[in-house]
Design brief:
Blueprint (H helix, E strand, L loop, with lengths): L3 E5 L5 H8 L8 E5 H7 L1 H9 L4 E7 L3 H12 L5 E5 L4 H11 L8 E5 L7 H8 L5 H14 L4 E3 L5 H8 L4 E4 L18 H7 L3 E4 L1 H4 L4 H13 L2
Parallel strand pairs: 1-2, 1-8, 2-3, 3-4, 4-5, 5-6, 6-7, 7-8
The structure holds cytidine-5'-monophosphate.
Length: about 230
């Protein structure tokens, strides 16, 4: 799949999401649907957005026993999304089961991306709450390697980690990176950010951009600026 900008549609309802997407008349951005919207509206919102011609990253971060994840992924594969994800912490066995479940009878499947350690987890909480004593960057890389060995397509990571992930897991292993901001924009609550152009230079494959587009005075113009900076067109 080509490099692209994915808009994080973090809206609380289907109506607000569709109202936002109505602004895009001459282009159909790749959109991310997260737990809030999916749990509020269910599969119908995915089908509606798909019918409007958008690619969809369904960000539900599955994590359960392998058999349950496999069956859940089989259901998601029928929604015809383009990308979905899970927690690498569920182990390689779970990731392999997820891939099996996600693969349709004709052999096609959505891209499957792993979350390593959430950016809300830091060294202290990982050591204290999870009893993982290794340095956080090593844990992230180990989980990325596990995802690669399980046959997954890539990881969600900071754009700052894209280069290291590619060095360790190969340049075809996808990096999907949030934490992107325009040089002249508000960082909001993101701590470590990069511009779309920097994310391109460092090798991110997909950037996930929310508020710089959804909260912009002109979201379509902000999206087009983001695409231009990221794809260098
Ligand atoms: O509005 P903003 O551009 O910060 O949105 C980024 C999106 O990426 C949000 O949907 C957020 O939940 C998601 N995300 C993130 N950091 C991660 C993983 C996901 O910001 N480590």
């Amino acid at each position: 799949m080509e490099k692209d900008v994915i808009i994080a549609c973090d809206f609380e309802s289907g109506a607000k999401t569709l109202e936002f997407l109505d602004k895009f008349v001459d282009c159909k951005p790749f959109v991310k649907i997260g737990m809030e919207l999916f749990y509020a509206e269910g599969p119908s919102i995915v089908k509606e957005i798909k019918n409007r011609g958008h690619k969809i990253f369904l960000d539900l971060k599955l994590h359960d026993i392998p058999n349950t994840v496999k069956k859940a992924m089989a259901v998601l594969s029928r929604l015809d999304v383009d990308m979905t994800n899970l927690h690498a912490g569920g182990t390689k066995e779970m990731m392999k089961a997820a891939l099996e479940g996600l693969t349709r009878p004709d052999g096609s499947r959505p891209l499957l991306i792993a979350v390593t350690q959430l950016t809300s987890t830091n060294q202290e909480s990982m050591e204290t709450d999870l009893l993982i004593k290794e340095p956080l960057p090593e844990v992230v890389m180990h989980y990325a390697q596990n995802a690669k060995e399980s046959g997954l397509d890539g990881v969600v990571c900071s754009p700052l980690e894209s280069e290291v992930v590619h060095n360790r897991c190969g340049k075809d292993f996808l990096t999907v990176t949030p934490g992107v901001r325009f040089a002249d924009g508000d960082k909001c609550d993101q701590k470590r950010v990069m511009t779309p152009e920097e994310a391109r230079k460092i090798g991110s494959d997909f950037i996930v951009v929310g508020r710089p587009i959804t909260q912009a005075a002109d979201p379509v113009a902000a999206y087009k600026r983001c695409v231009k900076e990221f794809l260098g067109e």
